[in-house]
């Protein structure tokens, strides 16, 4: 299958529309339960007993992993840790840590949030790093090597959580922050007092933006010196208002994100209850799928084909969830300096929401460097801006004053 240029950004927009159009059940219809991914056969990924007694960010298990050819002269570790889901229930997640052998003790620590368009745990970074499937390989490996060559330790959290809750952006923020806490508490990694930076683009940018916004209240002890977030969908509800319900080549991503949100909010978003027989069959087909399988399952479909109801605005709970996962509407302001980049002509995201969010941050006294990288498509902007983003973070690690064009 030829790889699509459609990213998780498109998925966020489509998902918002799909959720809005399928959020209200017909009276008297028997409930269909959410469908969750198959359990991982590796017990390292299992949810242990006694999670509620563990502190957030507490390491639960640590293991060294085989070295990876993609990252020469680098040791690999995995850390399982306690975090919290969107309904305040304790869960565990995993982060993979790349440790360059030339790194100094307490040297820079970068948490990089990779784009994950998936419903299956095998699609998470901790798994894809060791996959032979070319469709699952980490495409950012060259950029990560630039960080490793600078002596930075790099953490790659599985920021969708154990249920692959694709679409739950705020969850990605808490998992990211607790992953940093956990990594800093593992003595073998020697980063207990490291300065920390966050980075990510598109869906990974969403997790990074949420982590930055939540950090002052959720994890104030972390020494986050800089954040690089690109192509961030700041308001997924606004995307829904501007999106029609015509057949779309990326509808599979839309449905996958709706199902991921149902996994995270089963009481507020009973999406499965709204699906007709075709929708339920599609859901079952993509329950453990990664990007290409999801795209194939839903190519050319639309919400009206798979849903029993299309009442757009009749579910306050659905819009509550969309708003809860929109950074623009979260009142918190990051205290760490931010480098933000996007294309002014990016048709996949509401650029006005980025501008409004940055303006709010600036008015609150945040230091923000917002740069524009005009380009023909969303992914090209990621490539154009990443070198500048890494240089920005390098300067923050050195302690240079943060620039601002507020």
TrEMBL record:
**Example GO molecular function:** triacylglycerol lipase activity
Looking up InterPro entries in the UniProt record yields:
AB_hydrolase_fold, Lipase_secreted
Q: Where is the signal peptide?
A: 1-27
Q: State the Pfam families in the record.
A: LIP
**What keyword terms does UniProt attach to this protein?**
Signal
**PROSITE patterns per UniProt:** PROKAR_LIPOPROTEIN
Highest taxon in the source lineage: Bacteria
Share an example GO biological-process annotation for this protein: lipid catabolic process
What name does this protein carry?
Probable triacylglycerol lipase
Q: Where does this protein come from, organism-wise?
A: Rhodococcus wratislaviensis
Q: What is the lineage of its organism?
A: Bacteria, Bacillati, Actinomycetota, Actinomycetes, Mycobacteriales
